[in-house]
Give the backbone structure.
Amino acid sequence: MTSEGWGTPPVEPISQHYIVCGGNALAHRLVLELVEHYEVPVVVLVTDRTRDHAPQIEQITGVAAVVEYPNLTEEALRAVSIDTARGLALVEGSDQDNIHAALSAQGHNPDIRIVFRMFNQRLGENIERLLRNGAALSGSATAAPAFAAAALGRPNSVEIDGRYLHIAFDDAITSDRICVVADHIDRQDLSKIRLLPEQEGDSAQFVRLAREFGDDGPVRQGGLRRAPEPEPEAGSDAVGEPERGHEPAVGPEVESEVEPEVERAVEPHPGAEPEVPPGGIAALQALRMEPREPISWARRLRWRVLDTMRFLTNARLRVVLLIALAAVLMAFAVLWYLNRDFGWTVYISLLDLAGAAQPDQQADIAAGTGTGGLWQRVAQVVITICGITFAPVATAIAVEVLGSGRRGLPRNPSAGTRDHVIVVGLGNVGTRVATQLHEMGVPVVCMERDPQARGISAVRALGIPVVLGDGPFEEQLRRARLKHSRAVIALSGDDATNLEAALEARHGKPDVRVVVRLFDDDFAGHFYRTLDNAASRSVSYLAAPAFAAALMGSEVRGTLSVFRHVLLIAELTVEDGSGLIGLNRHDLEDPGGVRVIAARFARSNQLHWGFADRTRRLAPGDRIVVAATRSGLARLNTVLVEEV
């Protein structure tokens, strides 16, 4: 090992391994995914073994080695045996560094699978074309929909072929649900949640009956089994009568001996709904179009007008403008009342505002030919004076906006800001969430302590107000107009900071909805048990399964949250040599953790939803859409890369 790098390189030559470059939270989760669910050898390349999540990564059982290099150089790639690796994940560093490392890795190993994190998704798509086997993903873009939806109190959705899949809970579940995705939901103990439990279709009752009674005989109404009738002895002429000495096989005595559990198991009629398991329940449903946030155009217009006034003027100028405007309106009303001619009143008022009105002469007044009485003249004088006031005010606004360079500064929220969402932290995730909420038409106010944060310029270009400063959260939230907000999303990279922001928000407004970014699962469990009308999400927990699946060659279309648990929506392609060839729906779903929700066969491009044929075997060119847990998708990806 040279002086540029140190650490724990592989003691023995290693091959067919996967390399994770990074020591952040996403790298930590990704290593756990690869080791626990895919069971593949992993080598981790970090810049500092004592910082961030590197110490925790070293403690993970199954990590082949942790190598430390200050920079991702050619020598660092050789130290982690890039020539014999199967995959490389670049989840830390800038976009430029990741692009350079991806191209260098392909030069060493042309067949290696490369997955790299890119904030600029458009640039990532272009880089993908330069790589033989690469994929560009954005952790913030993967996680942002879950945060935005949680702030609005609605489930996020994943678009598949024009339908929007989302998670519905309890009473919101409709009869056209695709499948049950979770049960035993208990906010006080989220560990009880079962993802993708054993599902029961319409034939579940008949399956239970067949298993319980076998071929012993028919089933009577009410769930009682009829005992087989004894065969008559030879020569008996009483074929339909029971033989003397034998009691009837079915009667009250027999009914009383039937166990209650058996009766309950067969009691429901074929059309009855399956029994709901204890605790809450969640189901996967599809909508034809994505639900939009119901915000009226009048409310948006009012918010825009008031916010624009706040941006163009300060408090003193607004007071002067409002007083002058009120005086003009009162004078206009007097003129209209005296003349009873609306058109002439508008005409003379505009002339007075411009200082071009013709005043009455003394000769006209003496001759009785003046344009009105005393009150009309007073009204015209008021309008003229106010018109003189508007000119310097307009000049002051122009000087303040253009001359002082105020356009280049983030603006504070206006006094008219209502029903908005406060986004705390303008890192990659915060910027994505603020942008998505803005595109949905939801008013957004951002808070950031670092004036050099990269997200400030991005949200400023969208006209989103930003509260800057490193003061107490209480003061910053007040400036962000917490009293009139609908939700607060804390998205900094530190759990303690996010929790502090959430608690301060609840102190300032007890009924505000809070959404907190938390990495630690235990911390999140306490958070759910303590606060109502709150949600917790983890960026790394949402994004790591998608990165792991992409590293194995499958396409994750999106992630859906069931509290702190993740349901993956993935589309798999059956290629020549794939282990999926010849499998049917039963083979895919039987081990658990997977539901086939749609299929597209090679002979047609139509996507078949709820494909019911469980015996049809997959052929090359077929594509299936599955809802899967992390372990379920890992199992499918393992099969996907196996040779027939």
The mean pLDDT is 77. The first helix runs from residue 25 to 38. The two ends are 41 Å apart (CA to CA). Residues 269 and 616 are 30 Å apart (CA to CA).
